[in-house]
Amino acid sequence: TLSRFIPRIKLERQDSGILVAGRLTRSWSSYVSKKDDKCIQIEIRFKNDDPLVPQATSEPGGASLTPVVDLKPDIQELENLLKSLGPLPGEGSTEAIESPFARKIYTGKPISLDLVDANLKNVIRLLAEIVNMNIIIDQDVKGSVTLRVENVPWDQIFDMILKANDLGMEKHGNVIRVARKDKLRKELEEQEKLIEKRKDLIEKQAELSRKRRNMGPMETAYLVVNYGDIEKLKDQIDEAIKSDDGKIDVDTRTRTIIFTDYRPRIEEAKKLIAALDKPTDQVLLDAKIVEIARSYLKSLGVTWSFSYENQGNHRFRPHFEINTPVTTNTGILGLTWGLLKGQSAFNLDFMLKAGVNKSLAKIISAPKVHTMNNSEATISQGVDIPYKTLDEAGNTITEFKRAELRMTVTPIITPDGRVDMKISIKKDSPMTWEAGEEPPIRTSDIKTELLVDDGAVVVLGGILEKDESQTRSSVPGLASIPIFGNLFRNRSIQSENKELFIFIRPKIIELPSIHAMTENNNR
């Protein structure tokens, strides 16, 4: 029997399972363990000189057998011991039962209590009062408590009181509810059943909705697409709406989707096209390219006082204000930008024209360009410079080289109604050259991106130009006198620095769709 070799067996519950420990009455030499899904079998081999072990025997042919004692424990004896420990955590119950051997860390404030046959509810309320805890106790919680503790964490005392009276607790926010364990288990089971019923109801509703989509006879609808990509819309209907029995085709010539399916699905396709088949918004780019003399920047007066600094901070005062929170370092161009605040486009035109009338400014170009959302618009202005050169036969011919100011703008309308503009500027300036040579072109370019409000005016500055001119004058007759003729001749060199400013005003133009116009006409 089991007690012959292992007189005492100790079973100890641990977090990972049950530890079986015992002491052998004889010395052993080795062991072999075998494990399957349900149990672990251990075979212990004792030493040959042990009096309890039979001596080795010989098999026919001279082979020697070392006796092995198979210590298979008495199954019934072990089952009785295991039953005395109760079920394992998670077995046969809706919640895990904490192991009595597991150590739980308590962090509550230590308190001391000495109570004899105290009312259970009053003891729980006393603990709640001591630690300032919100607590609710069910009416069927009854019993008495006798305890004496010194400097024990309050949460440990509370835990032991619950265990001693077969109670449990659940938290709802900052409130703790105390009730009997069987009641909490029953409520948990009812909640799980209710959740399952809700899941079943949702599945049935989904199934009913699927059946309704496939009710009625098959119909054919001709869905006209005005603005969107007809192939993409067709694919969306095919993947999300069309049933297994439905058919879909496209007539590219008339931009029509031919959809055959059940009526509910056809109605879904119509709603999809009405939501997605909308015209792309357009942006009006109102630009002005203005050339202003450097001397004018400091002498415009009170109405439009314009000051220039090397850091690129520009201000129109008092009616115009350019706010430049960001300065863009742009190498050759030295481009800076700002936002024109406080004035309308009409006032801007008025002030620029006033400067032109006084010969203080020159409007080089004032183009207006419509472009689609997220589409590039190009504005350019320049001259073709003629120059003489020789062809392959040695003949003198005239060719032209282009020097221009080119600006490309790509507006992107954001969901909150602003305009994100990607701006690229290229400025060509011809340099002096000798006759018969190709004129050299100095090119400067810059790329930047700005986010502005709809209708706000963006100011780009820092494109510098220098114009030089020579003037010769003389007194006829006297200027030709040798030596003294220089007194009657005069040569002057004039140099003027100019700065080019570009004003851009993006304006979003929303086009109503055909569907919206039709609905408004029907009202």
UniProtKB/TrEMBL annotation:
<dbReference type="GO" id="GO:0009279">
    <property type="term" value="C:cell outer membrane"/>
</dbReference>
<dbReference type="Pfam" id="PF00263">
    <property type="entry name" value="Secretin"/>
</dbReference>
<dbReference type="Pfam" id="PF07660">
    <property type="entry name" value="STN"/>
</dbReference>
<keyword id="KW-0813">Transport</keyword>
<feature type="domain" description="Secretin/TonB short N-terminal">
    <location>
        <begin position="133"/>
        <end position="181"/>
    </location>
</feature>
<dbReference type="InterPro" id="IPR011662">
    <property type="entry name" value="Secretin/TonB_short_N"/>
</dbReference>
<keyword id="KW-0175">Coiled coil</keyword>
<dbReference type="InterPro" id="IPR004846">
    <property type="entry name" value="T2SS/T3SS_dom"/>
</dbReference>
<dbReference type="InterPro" id="IPR051808">
    <property type="entry name" value="Type_IV_pilus_biogenesis"/>
</dbReference>
<feature type="coiled-coil region">
    <location>
        <begin position="178"/>
        <end position="211"/>
    </location>
</feature>
<keyword id="KW-0732">Signal</keyword>
<keyword id="KW-0998">Cell outer membrane</keyword>
<comment type="similarity">
    <text>Belongs to the bacterial secretin family.</text>
</comment>
<protein>
    <submittedName>
        <fullName>Type IV pilus secretin PilQ</fullName>
    </submittedName>
</protein>
<dbReference type="InterPro" id="IPR038591">
    <property type="entry name" value="NolW-like_sf"/>
</dbReference>
<dbReference type="GO" id="GO:0009306">
    <property type="term" value="P:protein secretion"/>
</dbReference>
<dbReference type="InterPro" id="IPR013355">
    <property type="entry name" value="Pilus_4_PilQ"/>
</dbReference>
<dbReference type="InterPro" id="IPR001775">
    <property type="entry name" value="GspD/PilQ"/>
</dbReference>
<keyword id="KW-0472">Membrane</keyword>
<dbReference type="InterPro" id="IPR005644">
    <property type="entry name" value="NolW-like"/>
</dbReference>
<dbReference type="Pfam" id="PF03958">
    <property type="entry name" value="Secretin_N"/>
</dbReference>
